[in-house]
């Protein structure tokens, strides 16, 4: 995989799940500045003015009321997930994940010493019967899920599936941690509201981030929740010692939300990524054809392509790299080492012409 900073003009790495540097809106930030109070320790939950602006935008985007008191600012989604792990579990604990799942989250859980149990998915998300049985059997510390434009599969949980997950959380008191970083990156119809909007009495946390919808270098995100586990996070030693997170970056992003410039830029990103998704999908169908089945999402960053003959795509990775293209093998996204015939392909990092070239190179490798 390429580094987080550079992008080669010759080698096309579709494993990289980052925004195109040319889509980072640096001009929006040139005229912005911060006030003196933004350089001091802040409120534990994060700057209230920004949380009010964030809650207003989220309420509009989710079509659900989100109060500022339900938001806790973080240094991005990875920081949020790490904070949640610190509060909800310890080494040796069992957690539940979907199969497949976000490979970096799986790495984080392994580093924490967790016992990771992977659950099957269908076209609506995690299978509820399997989830209920696992909650009863393992008494897990939490269930980690990616409800909208799932990384890597692209699946979006239906409204009824979300209801079922939250109902199980309320019944069993097993916390649910929803990774919602792609929730607002829809290309057409909005997905159902985040899980944290369904039942404020259920132990559910939804994690959001500006990394995919504005710029990852901001390291700005949030946790949406309520109840005991949310209050534990807000009153953690980390925040009591250092104050609220991201005071400077939130001071920069707040005016962009208030002016509507953030929303305009987000709509441009949706259109750009939708077009790129089409280009990559059409290119793969043209070059590889009926050898693969592709889940084409209506948002997010990724296509999930699976070879119908069951071949091991990792076995072709070296050959692909020699041909100037790469991808993320599906088994890296599985806690059980499954999905050997699948690969995750990101359409956000490269412009359309390079995505067409990548499709042609993959066609030569897998023909």
Stated plainly, the CATH topology of the largest domain is called Aspartate Aminotransferase, domain 2
How many helical elements? 11
Strand order of the largest sheet: 2-9-8-7-6-3-4-5
Spatial gap, N to C terminus: 23 Å
Shape: globular
CATH top level of the largest domain is: Alpha Beta
Query: How many beta-strand elements?
Result: 14
CATH architecture identity of the largest domain? 3-Layer(aba) Sandwich
Poorly predicted ranges: none
Mean pLDDT: 96
How can the largest sheet be summarized?
8 strands, mixed
Structural class assignment: alpha/beta
CATH superfamily (homologous) name of the largest domain: Type I PLP-dependent aspartate aminotransferase-like (Major domain)
Helix coverage percent: 25-40%
Order of helices and strands: EHEHEHEEHEHEEEHHHHEEHEEEH
Count of distinct structural domains: 2
Rg measurement, Å: 20 Å
> What fraction strand?
15-25%
- Oligomer designation: single chain
Walk me through the structure.
The protein has two domains: 117 residues, Aspartate Aminotransferase, domain 1, CATH 3.90.1150; 226 residues, 3-Layer(aba) Sandwich (Aspartate Aminotransferase, domain 2), CATH 3.40.640. The chain contains eleven helices and 14 strands. Strands 2-9-8-7-6-3-4-5 form an eight-stranded mixed β-sheet, with helices on both faces. A four-stranded antiparallel β-sheet has the order 10-11-14-13, with helices on one face. Strands 1-12 form a two-stranded parallel sheet. Helix 4 packs parallel to helix 5. It starts with 11 loop residues before the first strand and ends with a helix. The model has no long low-confidence stretch (mean pLDDT 96).
């Amino acid at each position: 995989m390429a580094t987080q900073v550079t992008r080669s003009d010759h080698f096309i790495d579709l494993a990289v799940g980052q925004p195109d540097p040319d889509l980072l809106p640096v001009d929006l930030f040139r005229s912005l500045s911060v006030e003196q109070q933004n350089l001091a320790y802040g409120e534990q939950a994060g700057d209230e003015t920004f949380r009010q602006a964030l809650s207003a935008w989220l309420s509009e985007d989710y079509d659900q009321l989100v109060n500022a008191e339900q938001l806790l600012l973080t240094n991005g989604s990875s920081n949020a997930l790490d904070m949640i792990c610190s509060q909800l579990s310890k080494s040796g604990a069992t957690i539940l994940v979907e199969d497949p799942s976000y490979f970096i989250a799986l790495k984080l859980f392994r580093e924490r010493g967790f016992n990771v149990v992977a659950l099957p998915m269908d076209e609506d998300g995690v299978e509820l019967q399997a989830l209920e049985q696992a909650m009863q059997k393992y008494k897990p510390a939490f269930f980690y899920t990616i409800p909208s434009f799932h990384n890597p599969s692209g699946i979006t949980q239906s409204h009824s599936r979300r209801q079922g997950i939250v109902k199980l959380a309320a019944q069993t008191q097993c916390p649910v941690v929803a990774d919602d970083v792609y929730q607002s990156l829809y290309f057409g119809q909005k997905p159902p509201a985040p899980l944290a909007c369904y039942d404020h009495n259920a132990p559910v946390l939804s994690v959001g981030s500006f990394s995919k919808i504005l710029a990852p270098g901001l390291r700005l995100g949030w946790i949406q929740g309520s109840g005991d586990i949310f209050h534990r996070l807000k009153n953690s030693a980390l925040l009591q010692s250092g104050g609220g997170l991201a005071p400077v970056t939130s001071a920069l992003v707040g005016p962009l939300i208030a002016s509507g410039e953030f929303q305009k830029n987000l709509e441009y990103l949706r259109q750009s990524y939708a077009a790129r998704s089409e280009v990559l999908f059409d290119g793969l169908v043209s070059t590889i054809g009926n050898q693969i089945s592709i889940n084409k999402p209506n948002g997010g960053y990724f296509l999930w392509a699976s070879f119908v003959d069951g071949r091991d795509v990792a076995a072709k990775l070296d050959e692909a790299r020699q041909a100037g293209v790469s991808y993320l093998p599906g088994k890296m996204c599985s806690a059980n080492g499954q999905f050997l015939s699948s690969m995750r392909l990101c359409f956000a990092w490269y412009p359309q012409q390079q995505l067409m070239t990548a499709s042609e190179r993959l066609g030569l490798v897998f023909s």
